# Entry
Amino acid sequence: MAVLTLADIQVLLEQFKGEGLLVTCYADLSIERGSQSRWRGPIKAKADALKKTLAHDHGAWHAVAHDLEVIQEALQAPAAREARGMAVFSASQRGFFRSIPLEMPVENELVVHQAPYLVPLLQVLHRQREYLIVQTDTHRGRVYAASPAGARLVQEIEAAVDRRQHSSGERWGKEQATIARHREEQILHYQKELVRVLEETWTAHPFQGLVLLGEHEVLEHVRKRLPPRLEGHIIAELPQTWTDKPLAVESTVRAVLADALQAHERRILEGVQDRLRQGYAIAAGPSKVVEVLQQGQIGPRGYGYLVLGPDPREAVARCTACRFLSVEMPSSCPRCQAPCVEGNLWEELLLLSLRHEIAVHFVSANNADLALCNGLVAVLPKAAPSA
# Structure
Protein backbone atom coordinates (compact mmCIF):
# COMPACT_ATOMS: atom_id res chain seq x y z
CA MET A 1 0.00 0.00 0.00
CA ALA A 2 1.42 3.38 -1.01
CA VAL A 3 2.23 5.86 1.75
CA LEU A 4 0.15 9.04 1.79
CA THR A 5 2.20 12.00 0.53
CA LEU A 6 1.88 15.75 0.06
CA ALA A 7 1.51 15.06 -3.66
CA ASP A 8 -1.78 13.26 -2.90
CA ILE A 9 -2.95 16.36 -1.05
CA GLN A 10 -1.87 18.67 -3.88
CA VAL A 11 -4.15 16.88 -6.37
CA LEU A 12 -7.06 17.57 -4.04
CA LEU A 13 -6.09 21.19 -3.43
CA GLU A 14 -6.52 21.71 -7.17
CA GLN A 15 -10.20 20.77 -6.73
CA PHE A 16 -11.05 23.73 -4.50
CA LYS A 17 -12.73 25.29 -7.53
CA GLY A 18 -14.86 23.56 -10.12
CA GLU A 19 -18.32 22.86 -11.46
CA GLY A 20 -20.91 21.42 -9.10
CA LEU A 21 -20.45 19.79 -5.72
CA LEU A 22 -17.73 17.39 -4.56
CA VAL A 23 -18.49 14.51 -2.20
CA THR A 24 -15.84 13.66 0.41
CA CYS A 25 -16.08 10.33 2.22
CA TYR A 26 -13.89 8.92 5.00
CA ALA A 27 -14.53 5.31 5.98
CA ASP A 28 -13.26 3.26 8.91
CA LEU A 29 -12.44 -0.09 7.31
CA SER A 30 -11.43 -1.82 10.54
CA ILE A 31 -13.62 -4.83 11.35
CA GLU A 32 -16.01 -5.08 14.27
CA ARG A 33 -17.02 -8.31 16.02
CA GLY A 34 -18.88 -10.56 13.64
CA SER A 35 -16.81 -9.26 10.70
CA GLN A 36 -19.05 -6.25 10.10
CA SER A 37 -17.40 -3.17 8.64
CA ARG A 38 -17.67 -0.05 10.78
CA TRP A 39 -18.46 2.29 7.89
CA ARG A 40 -21.71 0.92 6.43
CA GLY A 41 -24.23 2.09 9.04
CA PRO A 42 -22.78 5.56 9.69
CA ILE A 43 -22.19 6.35 6.01
CA LYS A 44 -25.74 5.27 5.09
CA ALA A 45 -27.18 7.47 7.84
CA LYS A 46 -25.15 10.45 6.64
CA ALA A 47 -26.23 9.80 3.03
CA ASP A 48 -29.91 9.78 4.11
CA ALA A 49 -29.37 13.11 5.89
CA LEU A 50 -27.78 14.58 2.75
CA LYS A 51 -30.76 13.49 0.68
CA LYS A 52 -33.08 15.44 2.96
CA THR A 53 -30.81 18.49 2.85
CA LEU A 54 -30.73 18.51 -0.97
CA ALA A 55 -34.39 17.57 -1.44
CA HIS A 56 -35.17 21.05 -2.85
CA ASP A 57 -32.45 20.76 -5.52
CA HIS A 58 -33.11 17.68 -7.66
CA GLY A 59 -30.21 18.36 -10.02
CA ALA A 60 -27.68 18.60 -7.20
CA TRP A 61 -29.05 15.49 -5.47
CA HIS A 62 -28.95 13.51 -8.73
CA ALA A 63 -25.23 14.29 -9.11
CA VAL A 64 -24.50 13.59 -5.44
CA ALA A 65 -26.43 10.31 -5.55
CA HIS A 66 -24.28 9.20 -8.49
CA ASP A 67 -21.13 10.15 -6.54
CA LEU A 68 -22.34 8.16 -3.53
CA GLU A 69 -22.77 5.08 -5.71
CA VAL A 70 -19.24 5.50 -7.07
CA ILE A 71 -17.89 5.92 -3.53
CA GLN A 72 -19.66 2.78 -2.29
CA GLU A 73 -18.14 0.80 -5.16
CA ALA A 74 -14.69 2.10 -4.17
CA LEU A 75 -15.19 1.07 -0.54
CA GLN A 76 -16.02 -2.46 -1.68
CA ALA A 77 -13.19 -2.71 -4.25
CA PRO A 78 -10.18 -5.06 -3.78
CA ALA A 79 -7.90 -2.10 -2.96
CA ALA A 80 -9.99 -1.41 0.14
CA ARG A 81 -9.60 -4.91 1.56
CA GLU A 82 -6.01 -4.35 2.65
CA ALA A 83 -6.62 -0.84 3.99
CA ARG A 84 -7.54 0.17 7.54
CA GLY A 85 -9.21 3.36 6.34
CA MET A 86 -10.24 4.99 3.07
CA ALA A 87 -10.59 8.53 1.76
CA VAL A 88 -12.71 8.87 -1.39
CA PHE A 89 -13.44 12.07 -3.34
CA SER A 90 -15.93 12.20 -6.20
CA ALA A 91 -17.34 15.03 -8.33
CA SER A 92 -19.14 13.55 -11.35
CA GLN A 93 -19.92 16.96 -12.87
CA ARG A 94 -16.17 17.67 -13.04
CA GLY A 95 -15.18 14.18 -14.06
CA PHE A 96 -13.05 13.95 -10.91
CA PHE A 97 -12.51 10.86 -8.74
CA ARG A 98 -9.80 10.01 -6.23
CA SER A 99 -9.62 6.98 -3.91
CA ILE A 100 -6.85 6.81 -1.28
CA PRO A 101 -6.35 3.65 0.85
CA LEU A 102 -5.00 4.50 4.30
CA GLU A 103 -2.77 2.54 6.66
CA MET A 104 -4.69 3.71 9.73
CA PRO A 105 -8.41 4.00 10.60
CA VAL A 106 -10.30 7.29 10.24
CA GLU A 107 -13.64 8.38 11.65
CA ASN A 108 -16.58 7.88 9.29
CA GLU A 109 -17.48 11.16 7.60
CA LEU A 110 -19.46 12.31 4.58
CA VAL A 111 -19.26 15.92 3.42
CA VAL A 112 -20.72 17.65 0.34
CA HIS A 113 -19.18 20.98 -0.62
CA GLN A 114 -17.63 22.79 -3.56
CA ALA A 115 -14.17 21.89 -2.17
CA PRO A 116 -12.89 18.60 -0.71
CA TYR A 117 -12.81 18.29 3.08
CA LEU A 118 -9.17 17.51 3.89
CA VAL A 119 -8.79 17.77 7.68
CA PRO A 120 -8.98 13.98 8.40
CA LEU A 121 -6.56 13.29 5.52
CA LEU A 122 -4.13 15.92 6.81
CA GLN A 123 -4.36 14.37 10.27
CA VAL A 124 -3.39 11.02 8.78
CA LEU A 125 -0.47 12.66 6.98
CA HIS A 126 0.74 14.17 10.26
CA ARG A 127 0.20 10.97 12.23
CA GLN A 128 1.98 8.77 9.73
CA ARG A 129 5.08 10.88 10.19
CA GLU A 130 7.40 8.69 12.14
CA TYR A 131 8.12 8.53 15.85
CA LEU A 132 11.52 7.70 17.28
CA ILE A 133 11.31 4.58 19.45
CA VAL A 134 14.19 3.60 21.74
CA GLN A 135 14.41 0.16 23.34
CA THR A 136 17.24 -0.08 25.85
CA ASP A 137 18.70 -1.81 28.87
CA THR A 138 21.96 -1.01 30.69
CA HIS A 139 24.29 -1.65 27.74
CA ARG A 140 22.21 -2.54 24.66
CA GLY A 141 19.85 -0.46 22.61
CA ARG A 142 17.80 -0.41 19.44
CA VAL A 143 16.55 2.72 17.72
CA TYR A 144 13.46 2.50 15.47
CA ALA A 145 11.68 4.94 13.19
CA ALA A 146 8.02 3.96 13.55
CA SER A 147 4.57 4.96 12.44
CA PRO A 148 1.22 3.27 13.12
CA ALA A 149 1.82 1.35 9.89
CA GLY A 150 5.08 -0.30 10.99
CA ALA A 151 8.71 0.33 11.84
CA ARG A 152 12.24 0.17 10.55
CA LEU A 153 15.32 -0.52 12.62
CA VAL A 154 17.65 2.49 12.40
CA GLN A 155 20.57 1.31 14.53
CA GLU A 156 21.61 -1.22 17.16
CA ILE A 157 24.11 -0.33 19.87
CA GLU A 158 25.89 -2.65 22.28
CA ALA A 159 28.69 -1.93 24.72
CA ALA A 160 31.02 -4.37 26.50
CA VAL A 161 30.17 -4.12 30.21
CA ASP A 162 31.91 -6.08 32.95
CA ARG A 163 29.95 -8.45 35.14
CA ARG A 164 29.23 -7.26 38.66
CA GLN A 165 31.64 -9.85 40.12
CA HIS A 166 33.79 -12.71 38.90
CA SER A 167 32.01 -15.41 40.89
CA SER A 168 29.27 -15.69 43.47
CA GLY A 169 31.64 -16.77 46.20
CA GLU A 170 34.17 -14.00 45.78
CA ARG A 171 34.26 -11.54 48.67
CA TRP A 172 33.89 -7.81 48.21
CA GLY A 173 37.15 -5.93 48.26
CA LYS A 174 39.34 -3.47 46.44
CA GLU A 175 39.32 -5.52 43.23
CA GLN A 176 35.53 -5.76 43.19
CA ALA A 177 35.22 -2.04 43.88
CA THR A 178 37.45 -1.39 40.88
CA ILE A 179 35.27 -3.68 38.74
CA ALA A 180 32.11 -1.88 39.90
CA ARG A 181 33.60 1.55 39.12
CA HIS A 182 34.77 0.35 35.72
CA ARG A 183 31.31 -1.08 35.04
CA GLU A 184 29.67 2.24 35.88
CA GLU A 185 32.03 4.02 33.49
CA GLN A 186 31.19 1.55 30.71
CA ILE A 187 27.44 2.02 31.26
CA LEU A 188 27.89 5.81 31.27
CA HIS A 189 29.82 5.61 28.00
CA TYR A 190 27.00 3.53 26.47
CA GLN A 191 24.34 6.01 27.59
CA LYS A 192 26.28 8.91 26.07
CA GLU A 193 26.66 7.00 22.80
CA LEU A 194 22.93 6.19 22.76
CA VAL A 195 22.04 9.86 23.28
CA ARG A 196 24.47 10.86 20.51
CA VAL A 197 22.74 8.47 18.09
CA LEU A 198 19.33 9.80 19.12
CA GLU A 199 20.39 13.41 18.56
CA GLU A 200 21.81 12.64 15.12
CA THR A 201 18.74 10.64 14.09
CA TRP A 202 16.31 13.29 15.36
CA THR A 203 18.15 16.07 13.55
CA ALA A 204 18.14 14.18 10.26
CA HIS A 205 14.38 13.50 10.19
CA PRO A 206 11.20 15.38 11.28
CA PHE A 207 9.97 12.94 13.93
CA GLN A 208 6.70 13.59 15.73
CA GLY A 209 7.85 12.39 19.14
CA LEU A 210 10.03 10.07 21.17
CA VAL A 211 9.02 6.82 22.94
CA LEU A 212 11.27 5.12 25.52
CA LEU A 213 11.00 1.38 26.19
CA GLY A 214 12.79 -0.41 29.03
CA GLU A 215 13.09 -0.79 32.79
CA HIS A 216 12.12 2.33 34.73
CA GLU A 217 15.50 2.81 36.43
CA VAL A 218 17.37 2.51 33.12
CA LEU A 219 15.04 4.96 31.36
CA GLU A 220 15.49 7.51 34.15
CA HIS A 221 19.25 7.59 33.51
CA VAL A 222 18.73 7.93 29.74
CA ARG A 223 16.15 10.70 30.17
CA LYS A 224 18.52 12.76 32.36
CA ARG A 225 21.12 12.77 29.59
CA LEU A 226 18.77 13.86 26.81
CA PRO A 227 19.03 17.47 25.58
CA PRO A 228 15.92 19.59 26.39
CA ARG A 229 14.60 19.55 22.80
CA LEU A 230 14.46 15.74 22.87
CA GLU A 231 13.26 15.37 26.45
CA GLY A 232 10.42 17.78 25.70
CA HIS A 233 9.15 15.47 22.96
CA ILE A 234 8.99 12.23 24.94
CA ILE A 235 5.38 11.14 24.48
CA ALA A 236 5.61 8.00 26.65
CA GLU A 237 7.87 5.73 28.70
CA LEU A 238 6.67 2.13 28.64
CA PRO A 239 8.04 -0.85 30.60
CA GLN A 240 9.61 -3.57 28.49
CA THR A 241 12.08 -6.29 29.35
CA TRP A 242 14.99 -6.63 26.95
CA THR A 243 14.86 -9.54 24.53
CA ASP A 244 17.37 -10.68 21.93
CA LYS A 245 14.75 -10.38 19.18
CA PRO A 246 13.97 -6.97 17.67
CA LEU A 247 10.46 -5.58 17.93
CA ALA A 248 7.95 -7.13 15.53
CA VAL A 249 7.35 -4.63 12.73
CA GLU A 250 3.57 -4.79 12.72
CA SER A 251 1.67 -5.88 15.82
CA THR A 252 4.16 -4.87 18.51
CA VAL A 253 4.91 -1.46 17.06
CA ARG A 254 1.24 -0.66 16.54
CA ALA A 255 0.47 -1.69 20.11
CA VAL A 256 3.40 0.33 21.46
CA LEU A 257 2.39 3.44 19.52
CA ALA A 258 -1.30 3.07 20.42
CA ASP A 259 -0.42 2.91 24.12
CA ALA A 260 2.10 5.73 23.76
CA LEU A 261 -0.30 8.04 21.91
CA GLN A 262 -3.09 7.44 24.43
CA ALA A 263 -0.70 8.23 27.27
CA HIS A 264 0.53 11.28 25.37
CA GLU A 265 -2.99 12.62 24.85
CA ARG A 266 -3.59 12.42 28.59
CA ARG A 267 -0.32 14.25 29.21
CA ILE A 268 -1.21 16.95 26.67
CA LEU A 269 -4.57 17.58 28.35
CA GLU A 270 -2.96 17.77 31.78
CA GLY A 271 0.28 19.49 30.85
CA VAL A 272 -0.42 22.99 29.49
CA GLN A 273 -0.30 24.56 32.96
CA ASP A 274 2.85 22.57 33.77
CA ARG A 275 4.46 23.98 30.62
CA LEU A 276 3.69 27.49 31.81
CA ARG A 277 5.35 26.81 35.17
CA GLN A 278 8.41 25.44 33.35
CA GLY A 279 8.84 28.69 31.45
CA TYR A 280 7.18 27.87 28.14
CA ALA A 281 5.10 30.50 26.38
CA ILE A 282 1.65 29.44 25.20
CA ALA A 283 -0.66 30.97 22.60
CA ALA A 284 -4.33 30.04 22.95
CA GLY A 285 -7.17 30.40 20.50
CA PRO A 286 -7.29 30.94 16.70
CA SER A 287 -6.14 34.58 16.56
CA LYS A 288 -3.08 34.13 18.80
CA VAL A 289 -2.06 30.79 17.27
CA VAL A 290 -2.28 32.09 13.69
CA GLU A 291 -0.23 35.12 14.77
CA VAL A 292 2.66 33.19 16.34
CA LEU A 293 2.76 30.71 13.45
CA GLN A 294 3.02 33.45 10.84
CA GLN A 295 5.65 35.26 12.89
CA GLY A 296 7.80 32.12 12.86
CA GLN A 297 7.75 31.65 16.65
CA ILE A 298 7.21 27.90 16.15
CA GLY A 299 9.66 25.98 14.01
CA PRO A 300 10.74 22.49 12.98
CA ARG A 301 12.86 19.94 14.86
CA GLY A 302 10.98 20.28 18.12
CA TYR A 303 10.93 24.07 18.57
CA GLY A 304 7.36 24.36 19.79
CA TYR A 305 4.24 22.50 18.67
CA LEU A 306 0.50 22.76 18.09
CA VAL A 307 -2.29 21.03 20.02
CA LEU A 308 -5.55 20.58 18.10
CA GLY A 309 -8.86 19.26 19.37
CA PRO A 310 -11.73 18.07 17.12
CA ASP A 311 -12.28 20.24 14.05
CA PRO A 312 -14.94 22.90 14.87
CA ARG A 313 -15.26 23.76 11.14
CA GLU A 314 -14.25 27.39 11.75
CA ALA A 315 -13.47 29.64 8.78
CA VAL A 316 -10.29 31.60 8.09
CA ALA A 317 -9.39 33.95 5.23
CA ARG A 318 -6.44 32.88 3.06
CA CYS A 319 -4.68 35.22 0.64
CA THR A 320 -4.67 33.83 -2.89
CA ALA A 321 -1.19 35.28 -3.52
CA CYS A 322 0.96 35.07 -0.36
CA ARG A 323 -1.20 32.55 1.63
CA PHE A 324 -1.41 34.94 4.62
CA LEU A 325 -4.11 33.79 7.05
CA SER A 326 -6.53 36.09 8.86
CA VAL A 327 -9.28 35.12 11.29
CA GLU A 328 -10.84 38.58 10.80
CA MET A 329 -12.02 37.38 7.34
CA PRO A 330 -10.99 40.42 5.20
CA SER A 331 -11.86 40.40 1.51
CA SER A 332 -8.31 41.46 0.59
CA CYS A 333 -4.96 40.56 2.13
CA PRO A 334 -3.63 43.00 4.78
CA ARG A 335 -0.10 42.33 3.52
CA CYS A 336 -0.27 42.35 -0.29
CA GLN A 337 -3.87 43.45 -0.99
CA ALA A 338 -4.53 40.36 -3.15
CA PRO A 339 -8.00 38.79 -2.88
CA CYS A 340 -8.71 36.41 0.03
CA VAL A 341 -10.77 33.23 -0.09
CA GLU A 342 -12.50 31.41 2.73
CA GLY A 343 -10.84 28.26 4.05
CA ASN A 344 -11.17 25.81 6.92
CA LEU A 345 -9.04 26.99 9.85
CA TRP A 346 -7.88 23.50 10.90
CA GLU A 347 -7.12 22.65 7.26
CA GLU A 348 -4.97 25.75 6.75
CA LEU A 349 -3.08 25.26 10.02
CA LEU A 350 -2.30 21.63 9.19
CA LEU A 351 -1.10 22.56 5.69
CA LEU A 352 1.10 25.30 7.11
CA SER A 353 2.50 22.89 9.72
CA LEU A 354 3.35 20.34 7.04
CA ARG A 355 5.13 22.91 4.90
CA HIS A 356 7.25 24.07 7.84
CA GLU A 357 7.68 20.66 9.55
CA ILE A 358 5.94 21.85 12.73
CA ALA A 359 4.87 19.10 15.13
CA VAL A 360 1.12 18.76 15.72
CA HIS A 361 -0.50 16.74 18.50
CA PHE A 362 -4.18 15.80 18.23
CA VAL A 363 -6.58 15.50 21.15
CA SER A 364 -9.69 13.51 20.32
CA ALA A 365 -11.55 14.07 23.60
CA ASN A 366 -13.72 17.11 24.27
CA ASN A 367 -11.71 18.74 27.05
CA ALA A 368 -13.04 21.72 29.02
CA ASP A 369 -9.66 23.48 29.26
CA LEU A 370 -8.99 23.09 25.55
CA ALA A 371 -12.55 24.19 24.76
CA LEU A 372 -11.86 27.52 26.48
CA CYS A 373 -9.10 28.01 23.87
CA ASN A 374 -11.45 27.12 20.99
CA GLY A 375 -9.74 23.73 20.80
CA LEU A 376 -6.42 25.22 19.71
CA VAL A 377 -3.14 25.83 21.59
CA ALA A 378 0.42 26.53 20.49
CA VAL A 379 3.24 25.66 22.91
CA LEU A 380 6.20 27.87 22.09
CA PRO A 381 9.88 27.29 22.86
CA LYS A 382 11.12 28.60 26.21
CA ALA A 383 12.97 31.41 24.51
CA ALA A 384 9.87 32.74 22.78
CA PRO A 385 7.96 35.65 24.35
CA SER A 386 4.54 34.91 25.78
CA ALA A 387 1.73 35.59 23.31
